[in-house]
Amino acid sequence: MSAAKSLGAPVPPGGTIGILGGGQLGRMLALAAARLGLKAHIYCDDPRAPAFQVSAAHTVGKFADQAALAAFARACDVVTLEFENVPAESVAHVAGLVPAYPSARALGLTQDRFDEKCFVQSIGLTTPRFAAVDSAQEARALFETFGRRAVLKTRRLGYDGKGQAKPTSGDEAAAAFAAFQNAPSIIEAFIDFDFEASVIAARGRDGSFAAYDPPENVHEQHILRRSVVPGRLTPRQSDDAKQIARRIAVALNYVGVFAVELFVLRDGSLLVNEIAPRVHNSGHWTIEACAVSQFEQHVRAVAGWPLGDPARHADAAMENIIGEEANAWESYARRAGALHLYGKGEARPGRKMGHFTQLSPLTRA
Amino acid sequence: MSAAKSLGAPVPPGGTIGILGGGQLGRMLALAAARLGLKAHIYCDDPRAPAFQVSAAHTVGKFADQAALAAFARACDVVTLEFENVPAESVAHVAGLVPAYPSARALGLTQDRFDEKCFVQSIGLTTPRFAAVDSAQEARALFETFGRRAVLKTRRLGYDGKGQAKPTSGDEAAAAFAAFQNAPSIIEAFIDFDFEASVIAARGRDGSFAAYDPPENVHEQHILRRSVVPGRLTPRQSDDAKQIARRIAVALNYVGVFAVELFVLRDGSLLVNEIAPRVHNSGHWTIEACAVSQFEQHVRAVAGWPLGDPARHADAAMENIIGEEANAWESYARRAGALHLYGKGEARPGRKMGHFTQLSPLTRA
User: What is the Cα–Cα distance from B98 to B104, expressed in whole angstroms?
Assistant: First the structure.
């Protein structure tokens, strides 16, 4: 390993950040790296990956292709990811050749909903009640145990509502498990929350920590529709959310940006719903409302640079542009605010095509 | 010419903006195009051009290579430039194949200091006193006529102080002309200004106009050191500067972003120093202080999109990072504000390597 690739030295301007995954998050990471004079090298199996359009180099390859991964790793000074379903083994393989963040351990833990929730509880944080489900029979029985108000999810590989079911009977719970093709699953108590929120935070290689103000999030059909900061969170809840993120970051010895999705209950308390070991859709407003965006913050963290100030200089509302909504790009372009389009060819239903952020004067820091 | 390449239709997301020139301005234009889901194709003769690192496509070619230029033009939906010394004939050649902005006429006019000043006076604006110089004898004589307080410049191809002399005697004026290898030149009265300023403005394909608040600029050794907005300009001077820009844009039937460099005299009046037919170093603060930066504004203008709102949401101070100063990148990264590095390999003296922008609360709109 060359001196530049040792764990201690930061990646200097001109160096290369490797990114596993080539979607819009990889694209925005590459744009942020470019601002700092760093090159991006994208690894993705889709030859039309949106991130390729803005990167100095790219490799079309599968995550299982160890030779291609090794060649990619050797061309980079540090490697990170934009997609939490990169196999942890692939990250471990890369990490044998070049520094890679987040670690395979942190990634592996957050890839399994059951392991993740056990971890969250083990560090004294609260999650919805949950249990592992390994058979249709268990699904049926636990659905009853959970008072018939529960959500069934596969332990692995779900996002934007994929691999999730909301049964209304024991039979439906059993059928849902079968529909998951008997994949190891988890049942979670249905939470009658007041609203949803998230906190985006970063931990540097040196252990420094920085958290953005947590937005309130609105989902529609399991897809994020809108993030508003400060939203309905009280200053106390905002601080609580940041402390939750800090505790998770330290326990995972995490490096990089990550998000914690939260349920805010009617009594004001916060439950941890999910950890995303990457930059997060609910943090896109940081591009305009903060001096250092979540994307630049992640690049800084994994490259060993000092973390930037996460302070907000404005209130912000971000809304996603989903599927056919992108056809209205001209009307978005006429609105006051910041339009982002991701360079995706086809506006399929449910596909995140872009986002739009509106700023307004800071109401509270 | 295909429908998409006709003058009327805007370039839709997924389309390609061609950029002649691959320096930091081309790089920041490419980054801005990417935000809007547009691809950038850079044309530059330097195989290590900084803009290549962030662009979907690039061509290494000389501006004189008509075949390469034609192939480039055919691959683009619209072509623009980042560098005012692109030969006007090259732009005219490209414009025969695909819409190109600014026009070869506007470009040609601003490439000649004498023609430019004649134009500025012809539309009723004020410049420093000037005269064409075509011999060493004329240089000597006019230096005396101008009261021995005058600057000698080549009419064409100067930037950052190159091709300029400040003689202290008639002999020196004659020698300076000889040192310019007898290139057609211009003599300008030395202006004892209060301070320097500039105005960055845009005109859309539809004739719409938008001007940013003009910054006060400080130069050192003919290179921009610092731009501050609002600086010392009064609201009246700020409005005057925008009106100057509007008059120039309309007279040139200009499309795109341009800058007008101004001298602010002690009596409060404004003199036009120079027109730059491109995005401008003194407008870099718009990346952070405005919803739509000068780079995105230029992309919008040439792509036929609606112009964005140029309103500032903060005061701003931008300083250039020049030559060896870039070695201190870690200390810049620690400061509160936005660091931009341009991906240039070698920190040669006088070379613009990056810039740093600090925001502060808006003192006046």
Answer: 13
Under a CB-based contact definition with an 8 Å cutoff, are residues A101 and A277 in contact?
Answer: no
Quick one: which H or E segment has residue A177? helix A170-179
Pick from A338, A342, A337: which is nearest to A354 by CA? A342
CA atoms within 13 A on the CB side of B89: 5
Direct distance between the N- and C-terminal alpha carbons of chain B, in angstroms, rounded to an integer: 44
Architecture of domain B3-100: 3-Layer(aba) Sandwich (3.40)
pLDDT at B288 over 50: yes
Q: Which of A34, A54, A291 sits opposite B338 (nearest CB)?
A: A291
Q: Which residue of A has its CA nearest to B330?
A: A305
Nearest to A336 among B53, B291, B338 (CB): B291
**Joined tokens for residue A43:** 């690894």
* Alpha-carbon gap: A292 to the closest alpha carbon of chain B (Å): 7
Quick one: tokens of B104?
Answer: 């070869």
DSSP assignments along B181-192, one per residue: TT--EEEEE---
**What are the DSSP calls for A218-262, one per residue?**
EEETTEEEEEEESTT--HHHHHHHHHHHHHHHHHHT--EEEEEEE
The structural domains of chain B, with segments of one domain joined by +, span 3-100, 129-189, 195-360
CA distances from A211 to A100, A298, B261 (A): 22, 12, 41
User: How many Cβ pairs closer than 8 A exist between chain A and B?
Assistant: 110
pTM (2 decimals)? 0.95
Would the CB atoms of B329 and A13 count as touching at under 8 Å?
yes
* Residues A138, B205: Cα–Cα separation, whole Å: 65
- Residue of chain A whose alpha carbon sits nearest to that of B289: A288
How far off is chain B from A275, nearest CA to CA, in Å? 27
Gap between the Cα atoms of A64 and A41, Å rounded: 18
CATH number of B195-360: 3.30.470.20
Enter the tokens of residue A40.
């991006």
Give the one of B10, B36, B342 whose C-beta lies nearest to A37's C-beta: B342
- Cα gap B185→A173, rounded to integer Å: 85
Joined tokens for residue A222: 């399991």
Give the DSSP H or E segment for B172. helix B170-179
Q: Give the closest of A291, A300, A306 to B359, CB-based.
A: A291
Q: What is the pLDDT of residues A88-146, one digit of tens each?
A: 999 999 999 999 999 999 999 999 999 999 999 999 999 999 999 999 999 999 999 99
Which residues, including other chains, have CB under 8 Å from residue B207's CB and lie 6 or more apart?
Answer: none
Region of A157 please: left (phi>0), alpha (psi -120 to 50) or beta: left
In this structure, CATH architecture of domain A129-189:
2-Layer Sandwich (3.30)
Q: How many residues can be counted in chain B?
A: 365
Chain A CA closest to residue B362: A361
Interface test with B, best of A25, A339, A357 (most B CBs within 10 A): A339
Pairing of strands A216-220, A270-276: unpaired
The pLDDT tens digits for B77-120 are: 999 999 989 999 999 999 999 999 999 999 999 999 999 999 99
Closest by alpha carbon to B42, among B57, B24, B62? Answer: B57
Q: What is the pLDDT of residues B135-153, one digit of tens each?
A: 999 999 999 999 999 999 9
Q: Quote the minimal CA–CA distance from A239 to chain B in Å.
A: 22
Find the DSSP H helices in chain A: 24-35, 66-74, 88-95, 104-110, 113-122, 136-145, 170-179, 235-252, 286-289, 294-303, 329-334
In this structure, the number of other CB atoms found within 10 A of the CB of residue A325 comes to: 16
Query: Which chain B residue has the Cα nearest residue A36?
Result: B341
A314 vs B313: CB contact, 8 Å cut-off?
A: yes
Chain B neighbors of A341, CB-CB under 8 A: 13, 35-37
Is B343 within 8 Å of A37 (Cβ atoms)? yes
Q: Rounded to an integer, what distance in angstroms lies between the CA atom of residue A280 and that of residue A328?
A: 24
